[in-house]
Amino acid sequence: MTRIAKTINKKPDVVLIGAGIMSATLGIMLKEFQPDLTIEVFERLDFVAGESSDAWNNAGTGHSALCELNYTPELEDGSIDCKKAITIDEAFETSRQFWAFLVERNIVQSPESFIRSIPHMSFVWGEENVTYLRKRHAALTKYHPFKGMQYSESHDQLKKWMPIVMKERDPNQHVAATKMDIGTDVNFGALTRALLDYLDGLNGVNIHLHHEVEDIEREDDEKKWTIEVKNLDNGEETEVKAKFVFIGAGGGSLHLLEKADIPEGKGFGGFPVSGQWLKCINPEVINAHHAKVYGKASVGAPPMSVPHLDSRMIDGEKALLFGPYAGFSTKFLKNGSYFDLPTSIKWSNLIPMISAGLDNIPLTKYLIHEVMQSEEAKLEALRNFMPTAKMEDWELEIAGQRVQVIKKDDEHGGVLEFGTEVVSAADGSLAALLGASPGASTSVSIMLNVIKKCFPIQMQSDEWQQKVRQMIPSYGRPLIENPALCDEVRAWTSKVLKLNG
């Protein structure tokens, strides 16, 4: 869809900064709750979903904790902690319900354009890791949402599940894998574009591309925010006054949160992590694999660097990726500036930044090692998953930029958080989203939390409660505690989204 330049509404109810999956989701929700809301969306790039939401910039796994081993850490006593996996699985089921609602309403017309079924597998080798995966399987399958998870240490069985992973593998190597057939591959770029195309056609909504928010200040009467926006095509600057501002600018959110200068935002910092994929260019190899196969992360690796051999469907074509290989750049956005990190350091976050840096020296060493890796070393990492891999079948592709959250901590001064963090003003007039994985997959739950924080009175009204249950039928009823409801919801979303059961 070609977007026609629109006149800026200088006094909207809502301003959304960033045209990614988060702003798109929040915008749709708010218009469903209150159709007469006026919304202005500002995006610094000249296209939507150009950063973290783009298909090449994220894993597209539909993170549901079915295969990601970093969501089920092994505790000191040898037990497996399932709490994070349960939370993430519940959040992804919430996203699936919302997307099914959108398809039923014809807001999104072709579910196959953004979501497809694909098995999610975990794969490990070595005695210690096999023991871990066996315990993980036993722990997770006690909970109904994970009941369908299969486990095997048989080479013959694994050859059927993932032929290219097992081809020419040492028959004496002790390996194990789990498999969940209800996994998905999600193109968040395609989904974001579909949501914003719909929003763009609604009364009271204007989407402005190539417009950069340069400043955010609270009005003297504290009832509105003044947002300074620059049109990057002609240099024209505009002041917009809004009752509510959402900063969903990915790695750019931290700088804008600092400009807003709310007390709740003090002390937050960011640690950028870049990445690369190996992208397969041999159609024969691409078509020989149909699964998302996740391994165990190296010690000290950030969550976005969990290695996986990943079948994708991107813009109608099948792709095969391996990685991502972590790296370091001082940019906060793929299309950002090398000054992003240094200019984010303020007196208010200096101590948390230094403390987190000192506490995460192993991560720094890991990232330096990753940056220095040769092509041959990258190929060796791939051969752990695919023994027959040849470099001529693969090429490097730049992945997205992520900014991990650094926050104040009374005990350590500052800690590095791997996840997402919603920071909101006390009066609910502004909210910012910081952080990374699992991000897009749990966007619906994250945006519901933003609405609860920032529109608490409206959210308690009968009208909004009724609407949220239309959008998410299981709302307020944890699926982990309701096996029948879990099955019912999965059956409905699978049918509407054209997925396996």
UniProtKB/TrEMBL annotation:
Belongs to the MQO family. NCBIfam families: mal_quin_oxido, PRK05257.1-1, PRK05257.1-3, PRK05257.1-4, PRK05257.2-1, PRK05257.2-4, PRK05257.3-1, PRK05257.3-2. It is an enzyme of class 1 (oxidoreductase). Keywords: FAD, Flavoprotein, Membrane, Oxidoreductase, Transmembrane, Transmembrane helix, Tricarboxylic acid cycle. It comes from Emticicia aquatilis. The chain crosses the membrane at residues 12-30. It comes from the Bacteria. InterPro entries: FAD/NAD-bd_sf, MQO. Pathway: Carbohydrate metabolism; tricarboxylic acid cycle; oxaloacetate from (S)-malate (quinone route): step 1/1. It catalyses: (S)-malate + a quinone = a quinol + oxaloacetate. Its EC number is 1.1.5.4. This is Probable malate:quinone oxidoreductase. The keyword Transmembrane helix applies. It holds the Pfam family Mqo.
